[in-house]
């Protein structure tokens, strides 16, 4: 088998050196697939994504991307390694126009800038229609499209997406997740954190469940959807999110 796109081995990480949030976490994301991370609030899902993106220090373990060790690489080096990160919140500049958001994201695209912009706007027609509008005026779903377009501006091989459907209507959530699925058809690898568990499992290839900063269960998404234990804890009408 070829190298997986992303491989995380025994990663311990946290915001403070002697206060780990993640303990010996393992995860593999295959190229061109959607791998989803689910788990309760505070499980460490965002922390894991940030540790991969170089935003949270990794105290032990390794993060490899396409066979290259990227553990502890600075966040601003990630794009050069083909990785884009779409944060859970504040993932666009609301006071700037859509055009300005895209131009910022395209600032390192050099001569390819116009071609990439044209391709992104063809991919996201809703943005094309509102280029001069402030990003803050977009609907929730359109904001996620803009965040995704910004991420795609660096032509990544792997996109880390943290809860892109949070706060969206079921229909907008479906559209955003379908867009993610469509990207994998172009060979992009996606590591997705999701709270819409059933929806996420339906469109994912592989799924990891994290709780209290540790791996719990992982498997093919289709198998987990049919797993009675997973169904009982995470699907069967029970709340995954505390307070939801
Ligand atoms: N900037 C930070 N500094 C210190 N601790 C933090 C920071 N951000 C998160 N934490 C802590 O790390 C733990 C894991 O949080 P994290 O945000 O990774 O969880 P999550 O699984 O993404 O939860 P949610 O479903 O609510 O998004 C929590 O105990 C949280 O309080
Ligand atoms: Mg989170």
Structural commentary:
- The protein is of the alpha/beta class and 244 residues long.
- It has a single domain (6-235), classed as Rossmann fold, CATH 3.40.50.
- It is 32% helix and 24% strand.
- The chain has a six-stranded mixed beta sheet with strand order 6-7-8-3-9-10, sandwiched between helices. A four-stranded antiparallel beta sheet has the order 2-1-4-5.
- Helix 2 runs parallel beside helix 5.
- The radius of gyration is 18 Å and the shape is globular.
- The model is unreliable at 237-244 (pLDDT under 50).
- Bound molecules: adenosine-5'-triphosphate and magnesium ion.
In short:
This protein is of the alpha/beta class.
Question: Can you give keywords for this protein?
Answer:
244 residues; alpha/beta; Rossmann fold; 6-stranded mixed β-sheet; 4-stranded antiparallel β-sheet; 9 helices; 10 strands; binds adenosine-5'-triphosphate; binds magnesium ion; ABC_transporter-like_ATP-bd; transport
